[in-house]
Here is the input.
Amino acid sequence: MSTVNTCLLDSATCVVQVDSCVSDAGPSLAEQNVELRRRLNDAHAHYRRQLDTCQDQQQTQALLVQKLQAQVTWHTSLSLAHLLA
Here is the structure.
């Protein structure tokens, strides 16, 4: 056998050995990719829910501040009207 054929054969054997080590070690890269994408999607959905909740709370707080400002304005105008009367 020539040196090139021997190197190719050794390389092929090495690849087969690496492939068998990877498959023996656990899930394939495709399975790992699917799992990582699922975890990423779960994390994104969780973040999105948190963001939506925070935005809803900010809107509620802004509405309460607006109502309080209206009450302060109303009481201030009553106080001024009472002082001027």
Summary: Residues 3-84 form one domain. The two ends are 116 Å apart (CA to CA).
